Amino acid sequence: xxxxxxxxxxxxxxxxxxxxxxxxxxxxxxxxxxxxxxxxxxxxxxxxxxxxxxxxxxxxxxxxxxxxxxxxxxxxxxxxxxxxxxxxxxxxxxxxxxxxxxxxxxxxxxxxxxxxxxxxxxxxxxxxxxxxxxxxxxxxxxxxxxxxxxxxxxxxxxxxxxxxxxxxxxxxxxxxxxxxxxxxxxxxxxxxxxxxxxxxxxxxxxxxxxxxxxxxxxxxxxxxxxxxxxxxxxxxxxxxxxxxxxxxxxxxxxxxxxxxxxxxxxxxxxxxxxxxxxxxxxxxxxxxxxxxxxxxxxxxxxxxxxxxxxxxxxxxxxxxxxxxxxxxxxxxxxxxxxxxxxxxxxxxxxxxxxxxxxxxxxxxxxxxxxxxxxxxxxxxxxxxxxxxxxxxxxxxxxxxxxxxxxxxxxxxxxxxxxxxxxxxxxxxxx
Length: 430
Fold this sequence. Notes:
Layout: H1 10-13, H2 31-40, H3 43-47, H4 66-84, H5 88-97, H6 106-116, H7 125-136, H8 154-159, H9 195-202, H10 212-235, H11 246-256, H12 263-274, H13 288-315, H14 332-350, H15 353-376, H16 383-391, H17 395-408, H18 411-421
Helix pairs in contact: 2-5, 4-5, 4-10, 4-13, 5-10, 6-15, 10-13, 10-14, 11-14, 12-14, 15-17, 15-18, 16-17
């Protein structure tokens, strides 16, 4: 396999603000290794440990949170990128960064922030990720004294851009997110006031085509969702693969993922999955042997999906699989298999009545938090956001600062900040 680094030209390695190479060890780190290190050490990455993935991070010691999910996505993305010949550090960094913009309570919180900022540019987790990487995270400033965030390379920023278009060009929302919340937010990857850096990172790329490294990141995210939600649901006692209710599950699959799929098609897909040697033949009993068998199933499913994509993509003859030179090819059977697994998790976990009630209260809390912070102004904000508030030219820009502040909070800190706002005489900077 050729050295993948040599396939990335000087423009791919360029940063918005030029930086001299740093020698911290021999051999010198590559530009893409430096990008990865910056995302790993970012404050936004640490906050992911306390942000909702599917269920709240305090509900169980086993279930994934946004950080553990991102680490698992990164591992899948790195392995697939290496197999295809694109740079593994770029794909891994994009995977590590892909959820940085998620607000507290996941897509549920995103929905509220989008509604409350509708008239000032909207809110979208992926657009917020780009804003964090290029503005909000403190690392580098340009010659005019403006923050350029982590100052990542063009290739890495492009790989982090899952939806490379502004809100005005986004498709109307439809379906549901993997966590079960309805898609009510138009998907886009850049706010209007971040368009200059977006134009820089996209260079001369026309249209909405994603680079292949972003496609690898997106597939790795989909694979992780489809497999790990099943694992979490089994350990939580909500899913038992040997005792499924197929007719009910198929209705959920159609409602959420495959509206035109009939029972026979879905049953055939499940039968194919169940032929896998590691598919359980006995109920999960929480023993060490049972947990080991579950881990083997998880590993086999990830290998099954990634192996199928790798085989078909390499056979497509589209190489080199670098930036905008090629596209990932996902077999239809693989898409169906992942959708069936996501449908099983959706039916037994996401549609549970107790979870629906909690999500309703979370939306109320986020809305009240935005209103309270906007009313109190800079004394209720963290110092860096208070500075942004004071330098904001108008009310719309100040509202965006409040949204940036709320989006930065973890689930627990959002609850604490909300409680502090309710106490008279407190500045609510918990």
